Amino acid sequence: MSEAAEADAAGAERDQLYDALSRRLTQADAASAWPILGDAGVQGILIREALGGLGMTAGEAEPIMAALGGACWPTPFVESSIVAATLLARFATSSSDEVLRSMAESGEIATVAGLDERLRGGVSGSKDGEQWRVDGTLRLVLDADHAKVTLVVVDQAEATGLFLIDPALASGRRSYPTIDGRLAADLQLDRAPATMLSADAGEAVAAAADAARACIAVEAAAIMKRLVRDTVEYARQRRQFGQTLAQFQVVQHRLVDMQMHARRAGAIARRAMQALDEPAEVRGRIVSAAKATVATAGRFVGQQAVQLHGAMGMTDELALSRCFKRLTVIADELGSADQHAARHASLRDAG
User: What protein family is recorded (predicted)?
Assistant: First the structure.
C-alpha cells in the first residue's frame, strides 16, 4: 500500500472513531462518559496489546479528545489514559504492569500529582531502609477519590523523582469539586509507603506533560467549534426588533471572529499532536504555541458565546455553561498563556 493510501486509511479510521464516540457522548451524561470510553476500548489506548491495550501513540488520541471536547463531559482520560499510562509503561515494573492491565481491561483510574510544576512544593521522597516513603501535601489531584494508584512527581536536589503510591494510604484528604465538574482532592502524606519508579524522570515527565497539553488543546478547539455552532443556531432563532440576531451586521461580524479563533485553535492543536514525536525542543515550542493560542482563543470564543446568548448564557440548562467553565479551566491548566508564550520564545531563541 502506498503512503497516500495508508494516510487515507488512517484518516478514515480516525473519522470513524470520532463519529462513533461523538454520537454516544453527545447523547450521554457526565456519569456515562468514562464507561463509554471503556466500551469503545480506548481507555487503554497507549497500553501495549499484551496488557490488554491498543498499543497506539498519544498523537493518535486526537479523535478521542475531539469527541470529548464536542460533548464537553469531564473524564480522567488525559490524566489516566495518556499521562499515567505513558509514565507507567516508561518505567515498567511488575506492579506497574498489573496496574496497566487493570486500566486497559477494567477501566481502573490512575491519577498524577505534581505534573504541573507549580503544585510540587513541599513534597519529598526519602528511603527508610528498603522502603521508599513520600511526605507532603499533594494538591489538586484530579479523581483521587476514584484512583487505584497515584503517580507522584517530586522535585529533588538534582533530578525529578517519580513515585507510585496507593492514595487510600493518605493520612488526610480534602475533596472538593472543580468549576468544570471534576472532583479533586488534596492528599496529606505522612511517610506514605511508595514505589520508586525513577530517580531521574524529568525528560519523561516533560514529554508526558506536553502530550497532556496537546490533548487538552484539541479538546479546547472542539469545545470552541461547538460553541460557534450553538451560537450561530441561537442567533438564527432569537428575534429582536422584528428580525433574528443573525441578521444584525454587528452580530455577523462577531460570529465570524469566533469562527476564525476556533479554526486557528483547531489548526495549531492538530499540529501540536503531530509534534509529540519530534525532538523535545521542537515539541515543546509547538505545544506551548498551541497552549497559548487555545487559552486566548477560548477566552474570546467563550465570552462572545455567553454575551450573544444574553441572560441564558450561564444557565445550567444550556451546554454553553459547562463549555465556558471548561475553557476557563483549560486556559490555566498545565501553564497559563503567558507562561507558554515565554516558553515558546525561549525555545525558539535556543533553536
Answer: Belongs to the acyl-CoA dehydrogenase family.
**What is the domain extent for residue 321?**
203-350
What's at 233, amino acid-wise? E
Select from 235, 232, 298 the least CA-distant residue to 264.
298
- Specify whether 227 is located in the same domain as 164: no
- Looking at the fold, whether 79 and 123 belong to one and the same domain comes out as no
Mean pLDDT for all residues in the chain: 93
Mind spelling out the 3-state secondary structure of 48-77?
CHHHCCCCCCHHHHHHHHHHHHHHCCCCCH
In this predicted model, what pLDDT tens digit does every residue of 162-183 receive, in sequence order? 999 999 999 999 999 999 999 9
Element (H, E) at 176: strand 172-177
207 & 344 share domain: yes
Q: In the chain, which residue ranges form alpha helices assigned H by DSSP? A: 3-26, 30-39, 62-71, 85-90, 94-106, 202-237, 249-274, 280-309, 319-332, 337-350
Q: Are residues 271 and 239 in the same domain?
A: yes
Looking at residue 178, which CATH number applies to its domain? 2.40.110.10
Closest CA to 120 of 91, 71, 162, 173: 162
* Same domain as 278, residue 236: yes
- Condensed to tens digits (0 to 9), the pLDDT of residues 302-335 reads 999 999 988 777 777 788 999 999 999 999 999 9
What are phi and psi for residue 89, nearest 5 degrees?
-75, -35
Q: How many domains does the chain have?
A: 3
pLDDT tens-digit series, residues 232-275: 999 888 877 778 887 888 989 999 999 999 999 999 999 999 99
The CATH number of whichever domain residue 64 belongs to comes to: 1.10.540.10
Residue closest to 223 by CA, chosen among 44, 26, 81:
26
Alpha-carbon distance of 42 to 61, in angstroms, equals 9
pTM of the predicted structure, to 2 decimals:
0.94
The answer to whether 95 and 128 are in contact (CB under 8 A) is no
> Considering only 96-100, 183-187, 209-213, 323-327, which range has the smallest mean pLDDT?
96-100
> Given a cut of 70, is residue 7 above it in pLDDT?
no
Nearest residue to 153 (alpha-carbon basis) of 117, 183, 191, 186: 117
